[in-house]
Amino acid sequence: MFLSYLLDKNSPSYGNRNKFEISKKSDISKGDVANDSHMSTTVHIGTHIDMPYHFYREGQTIEDYESAFWFFKKPLIIEIRQQDLIIRDNLIERLKTIKDDKYDILIVKTGICDRRDCEDFWNRNYGFHPDIYDLLCNQFKSIRVLGFDSISVSSLQDRMLGRESHLRFLNPQRPILLLEDMDLTAVTEETNFKEIIVAPLRIASCDGLPCTVIGKLNG
Hints:
The structure is a single chain. It is globular, with a radius of gyration of 18 Å. It has 4 helices and 12 strands. The longest helix is centred in the C-terminal third of the chain and has 11 residues, at about 160-170. It is of the alpha/beta class and about 220 residues long. The strands form 3 sheets. It has an 8-stranded mixed sheet, with no helix packed on it. It is about 15% helix and about 25% strand. The protein has a single domain (about 15-215), classed as Putative cyclase (Glucose Oxidase, domain 1, 3-Layer(bba) Sandwich), CATH 3.50.30.50. Strand 9 (about 145-150), helix 4 (about 160-170) and strand 10 form a beta-alpha-beta unit. The model has no long low-confidence stretch (mean pLDDT about 95).
């Protein structure tokens, strides 16, 4: 199953600041020999991954990761129902009850994916407190990526805390990459994934990368 969204003109962006635009440079319907499309966009739109270079001058980019990095054999899926816009205690309490430390990707479903066509999705999105990074580093040393259905790790309503979260998670010394705006509408904690594959667009020296994400189910 796909865990990423199609990019189109309606794709929301953080704070509604950017749009995905696509147009034809040549068009068969207008007598041209072939269709040739041109797109203009930020790399931080739709399902995308934040690289350490997003917040660090010497941070890692796609060139620093081997292909094997993007295959995840032991995903941890957690659903939370959140009142506050900043996710902290609710998730930390759940994580502390988990004894297996071999998970390699954490995916958090808040349910905001069900409201992706509403203004709240980009204007009042859930953010993740930087303390979650510390817990993951201490308790789940194999986790390489945090994925979620909110548009950003930073809530638009608390951008200063969001900046600290970006800095903490993307720390080049021990980065946990951020996979933002995942399509988790069909995912629950009972979804039995055999493997999750994250396939970023390979753009050299770039701070963020649109991704196709595929979940392979057991059975």
